[in-house]
Amino acid sequence: MAHIPLLVIPPQLALIGIIAGAIVAFIFMLFIFKYGWLYIQAMASGAHVPLFQLIGMTFRRVNSKTIVDARITAKKAGIELGTPELEAHFLARGNVLNVVRALIAASKANIDLQYDRACAIDLAGRDVLDAVRTSVNPKVIDVPDPSKGKATIDAVAKDGIQLKAKARVTVRANIERLVGGAKEETIIARVGEGIVSTIGSSDTHKKVLENPDNISKTVLNKGLDSGTAFEILSIDIADIDVGNNIGAKLQADQAEADKRVAQAEAEKRRAMAVARAQEMTALVEENRAKVVLAEAEVPKAISQAFRDGNLGIMDYYNMRNIQADTNMRSAISETDQEKNHEPT
Question: What secondary structure does DSSP assign to 300-312, as a single string?
């Protein structure tokens, strides 16, 4: 019987084969550990995802567990969503699970919400799930917003009395206008403006206090939800209080301002009178200086008259006597006046 020679494998090749086999086994176990459970979970749930697609998600930087969970959730709710659509929204930085939950909620509430619109709402920065819930269960918005630090909307009626009002606006989300529609801040601002306008057009504050529902009706009829992401269902005045008498305060302030203006005008006139008096005093002094200068010319003229022979010595003495007599009479007259004014 002939003997078959045995194939002898060199130890080096055997070691290389063992290492290669171990690497292959490790890679296989790694794939089974990472993708096997997701593959089995998806297949068992009726939302089959090919294994190679799961592997490709890793290279596309897509969270395969999120995609599988979203697909399974949608499938169980009767919504068929393909893996590429979910991956595209994930790569666009969207919240895939939130979109799927919103689609399920909309389906249960008989709201027509397509996947593309839900993705657009989500990518626009809005909470699409909250929007669906708000469209089913309306929410209440406080006017003014307490978080902004203002407690009431203040307005003044035509009689000058200030009123402080609080309102509650019941709104429902409008799915069709969520993309590009204004947010809650716009609703709050418009309702506040409507309250101020309605109170300001009232003849007296008593009419507003008697029928506060008139404010709600007037504001609601203005179509304040136009261009917003909400539909206003009702506007209710939660509280209304009487504030200050703004009209009286304004009149008092005006009177005070008029008084200050009058005081300023009086002070202006007094300053002008003082300035005029100073001018007249300066003018008197100026005229006195002119008189003094004129008197200084008299001796010169007399001297010149003597030289020219137009004035004689006797004429000069007669003039001096007349001056002395005039001075004496003036002194006597002043003395009599002082005696008459002395108290008895």
Answer: HHHHHHHHHTSS-
